[in-house]
Structure formats: C-alpha cells, structure tokens
C-alpha cells in the first residue's frame, strides 16, 4: 500500500498539469450535469415494514385518490377578544378563506369548520383542515405560498390565524453554517501552517471534492429520487473530512522537507505514509455511512450512500490533487518549523531542540498514565450518566420555537380542543374477509372507546366497496407523550383480539403512529448497526495496526465518547440544562435518529483521529523505538494536526447549533460535543495512557493471524527499505519509482 501510494504521489507531483486538468474536468462535468438535470423535489418518505406504512399502502388500494400519506394543514382561526367565530363577519372571513384554499392545484379537499363541527365549545377557536395529494416533503413551493397567503388575508380581516401540520415543512437552510465552518477552518489552517498558501490547499481540495459530490447528487436526484435533503449530510461530512485528509498530507509533506528530502521525494513519502492513513480512515467513514442501510429507511440509506460517495471523492482528491498542488507551490511551502510570512517571503526558523506542546503532553501522560486514564474515564462516565434517562421520539409542531406559526397553531388547538387533538390516530379496519364488515367496523369503534386516554372516536367511514373503513381517534394526551404511545400499543393489542372474532384486520396509522413506528424501527436497528460498523472497522484496524488490543481500545473509547455526548444531549435538550445558552425553547424527547446517526457519523470521524495518530506511533515502533518513546513521537508529529482537524470539525458542526430548527440544533450540538470528547479526551488522553500501560503488548498479534493478514504497510516500512537500496544503488531506486 505505502509503496503504491508513494509512486502515485510522485507521479501526481511530476504530472501536476494532467492531474489538475482531470479534477477540473470532473468538476465541470458534474456541474454541467447538475445544471442540465431536471429539478427534483424532496425525496418521497416511506418506512417499509411498519404497521403505519402498511396501513397507508392499504388505503391507497382501497380508497383510490384519497392520498392517505398526503400532506395536511390546519388553518386555525381565533376570534378577537369579546367575539366568537360564529359571528357573522368572522364566519364570512373563514368561508372566504376556505374558498381560497380550495383553489390550489395540489389540494384534495378542504373541510369547512362550520360544516365539520370544528369550532371549540366556547366558540372562540375554529380550524379548517386542508388535504393535499402529495406528502409535505414533496409539496410544491407554490402550494405552500398559497397556503400562507390565504392565512394572511384572514389576518388582514382581523382574525388571529396560524397554520399547523406538515404542509409547511421545509428543509433547513445550512449555507450560512457551512460558511462559518469554512471561515473558522481557514483561521485554524493558517495558524497551523503559518502560511496562507499551505492553508489554502486543504480548503481548495475540500471545496472541489464537495462540489463534485454535491453536483453529482443533484444531477442524479431526479433519476434516483434523491431529493434536496440528500446533499445536506454529504456536504457537511465531505467538507469536514476533505479538509482533514488534505491537512494530514500537507503536514506530513512539510515534515519530510524538514528531514532534508527533495520536494518530489517528500510528496511521494507524504502520500505513501499519511496517504495510507487517509485511505483506511476514509474506509471506516464509508463503512459507517453505507451501514445506515441496515435501518431499512430508504431516505436514510440514500443519504448515507451519497455521503459515502463524497467521502470517497475526498480521499481520491487528497491523494492526487494535493501532491499536484504541492508541485505548483514549489519552494513557497516551507519545511515544518519554518513558517512562511503570511504574504509570501522570508521565514522564521523554529528554536532548535525545544519540544512542542504535543511532545510535552505525551511525555506527561507516559509518566502518569494511570492518573490520566482514570481522570478521562471518570470524566466521560460522569458526562454519560444522563444518557440512562434517554427518551426518544420524533419532533412535532409542539417542539417548534414559539415564534413559528406551526407552534402557535399547535398551542391554539390545544387550548380550544385539548392536547391530543394535535395528534389524532387513524384506525384502518380491513374487513374484506369478514362475513359482516359493518358489524366489524362498529365493534372496533366500541372497543376503542373503552380504552384509557381516548377522548373522541368518530363513526367509521367506509370505502365504496364497503370492505374497508377508517376511524379517527383523538387521544387525551399530546402526540409526543408516553401516554399516547401506550394508547397506540393498546389499540394494536385490542385489534389482535378483534381480528380473531370478526375475521378483520385493524391497523393504526397517522403521523403520530408513524413517528412511534419510526422510533421503534431505529431503536431495533441500533444494536445490529453498531455490531456491523464496529465489527467491520475492528477487522480493518487489525489489518492497519497489526494488533488486537489497539483496535479494541479504539472501539471502546469510541463507545465511551458517544455515550458521553448522548448524555450531554439529554442534559440540554431533555432536562433543560444550559437551555438558555443554547437557545433551546422547548425541551422534550431526544430525536429518535440521534443515537444511530451519532454512531454512524462520529465512529467514522473518531477512527480518522485514531488512524492518523496511532499509525505514526506504529511507524516509530516498527522503526525501532521503544513503546513509550513511540507514543511521544506520534504526538510530536501528529498532535498539532489532529488538534487542528478536531477544531475544524467542531467548528463545522457547531455552526448548526444556531439553527432555529430544533432537530438541526440537536444534531449540531451532539456531533460537536462527540468530536470534542473523542478527539481531546479519548484520543489525546486515554489512548496514550492505555498504550503506555500496555507497552509492547499493545502491538501483540497471534502468529497465525499475522501470517493470514495482508501486509498493507501503512507505516511505510517498504519505503524505508527502498531508501536504503537507493543509497546503495541510485539507479535501482530510479527504476523503483518509475511508473
């Protein structure tokens, strides 16, 4: 591996014009494809295998044109103080608004509040239900604009009007967050390299890589039903790892120059050593992202595969474009320890013999490994304690900021009709095989009326064939409560008994039931996903480090950092600690996707730091250093760039904390916290402490396994042999590197 990448690095350095032309051509081709591709809406959303999805599918068959999984909106009206919604003027305004709502091209139906008895008992609040042909994620912007305009016209007439439901759901904008992340990354890179030119290379290659990845996703969006949300994760992860991978190769190049090597040789060795770590670090990220397909949620699978493709592009561009750019830069890139003036000329030599901060820290850890290990483990363990109280759920309008119309509509409906009115359950009764369908419909309704926390049960509405009916159930508790979830399970349990008596099938669906099923599906998939991702990465790291204990330590450290990060998420978003500082307006259950999302993303990124830092230790050990000294050497060369990479990653994710969307805010906080814990506590403290305690045992590998594993030579031992042969036979070395 190291020898092949060494040759690739030297080739890219020499043939830099050709390499640059290839990447520019690929970027142009992807850009043209994205520009000429048909516009794609948001991807369709389905959860195969869940009861709620089965009910939606059945409704599509038995109620043609019903659009059971179509978007819904509730336009909520409140009369001015001292008036009621049944007053003549207010009623005329509502009827005019209903007529305006019906004119939309994607509207299936609009329920008049007065015909449908949708006025509160005190007469002050009423609502009109709007049903659309497509889901909220597929709804056209024109339909959303028409909905907002109709509500505004009613406001202009003097009513308080708010709009709830999923019809106004939108993909959060993340462009400003990415700009903030890039800005902070630029500052960190300039501080790390002391040169605008060297700092610009990782940014340039990362932007090119993300540009190719996102443009390709856009070009294929319509054909593959990728949708506008798929590129969000790809751009976020691609940008972060793209900067990191290029950062490590440029840093190694400067270190090779400091050892006196010629620039082409230094580029080859940088790609052969740091590039080997990039390849295997990228593989761990790809494994984690592609592994999201285990959950069997199509949208999540597409997001994972698209992001994995962008990571693969980031790896390839770091291995080829970076040495090509180094060839263009020539002597303007200074050796490590010699920082260029920010605008170009001169250099300031570093004071010789003075150990850097990474060396001093590693030396301290090697001297006090037990104390550092205990402090790190106990600290992360304390942070993880709140995770024991983790409650999972999916956000609804009740978790929106109070400044949004969705949240205000939610509160008005709770005020006028009760909290459960915001999450009605739809019961689908399939009586096709029943000898008495109408009796089955009636019995289902009667049985549900007797359950706890049921406020309203509507009469069954049968289809034209008379073999299937829908029943609406309004719970007494809010949609995200445990009581409502218990009611869903109780109805399903009762449905199993009814099925035996009446030869009918009872299914529970609706947005509330769908959220419950999604949460359960994600919970059930977490352990298999964790086993798959950690297991495959464990095998990969055994090949990289040729050790059993080092990969085991890496996996255990990752689990500790993820649990600590989940604990922090629970403390802030569920318990409300520091909620004012984080601008968390509404506490509640943690988003169901958070644990599996954090496992996938953070595991890949955590293994990046593990591979980059520990491969340098492995390299020093293989080249003859004592285990404790190898730890110090690894930190001397790698701590600065790992720290810079972690700060960049934290900056990218922290930019999302400022979002008004609670889900985006939670993801940004969780990922930033997890990277902080993993990079600075696990990799910078626990890892060197454990390696110092293990000594040579850290690199133990059974002989039979050593013989069975392929020798990928990540530490560059083959390059050391090639260098020795060159000293003895310069002509032979030239033959070795010729491609």
TrEMBL record:
Record's protein name: Membrane protein
Superkingdom in the source lineage: Bacteria
Residues spanning the membrane: 179-199, 206-224, 230-250, 271-294, 306-329, 370-390, 526-549, 556-576, 596-617, 638-657, 669-694
Domain SSD: 196-328
Organism: Streptomyces filipinensis
Location in the cell: Cell membrane
Recorded family membership: Belongs to the resistance-nodulation-cell division (RND) (TC 2.A.6) family. MmpL subfamily.
Annotated keywords: Cell membrane, Membrane, Transmembrane, Transmembrane helix
Keyword Transmembrane part of the UniProt annotation: yes
UniProt membrane topology term: Multi-pass membrane protein
Disordered as annotated region, ranges: 719-739
PANTHER family, A to Z: MEMBRANE PROTEIN MJ1562-RELATED, MEMBRANE PROTEIN SCO6666-RELATED
Gene3D superfamilies named in the record: Multidrug efflux transporter AcrB transmembrane domain
InterPro entries: MMPL_dom, Mycobact_MmpL, SSD
A matching Pfam family: MMPL
